[in-house]
Amino acid sequence: MDASDQRMEAFLKSIEAKAYRMALVGCSDPDDALDLVQDSMCRFVDKYASKPRDQWRPLFYTILNNRIKDLYRKRTVRNKWRMWFSPDQDRNQGDPIQAMPDHKAEDPEHAAKVGDAFGQLETALKTLPHRQRQVFLLRTWEEMSVKETALAMGCSEGSVKTHYSRAVHALRDKLGDHWP
Fold this sequence. Notes:
The protein is mainly α.
């Protein structure tokens, strides 16, 4: 394995957990989230491995964001057809993120509070428009700069600032006591 392959592997390892969480929030299905991340990584390596390393992160998240949007489009079409054939089929399925245990919790009370807060955050994130949710995740969870986020989303820096501000205000209103 040469040095460029090692750098690529280190980059992919550094973003895999955060990319998975972002995909999971975006699609709410662990299997789909894994597929989204894996497909995004393969596409990234195939198309952008030769790009300068400082461009990798925004390029990867551009691909991931586009894959999440594609999944939304497919689900929207599929759900419209499903409504005609089986309207009550998917209503009783539980949320896998809320069922996930917090292994870092120090005690059960703390775990319950963290789980409740995360559940509230996830619910609030799902109510945001797609662009606000993506900007919030990239800026907050991924700690990307405004410029990197704009590159990843294919929009202006002003648009990133506007969507981020709207997302933060909406989340504050929705989360109330759970907001830090």
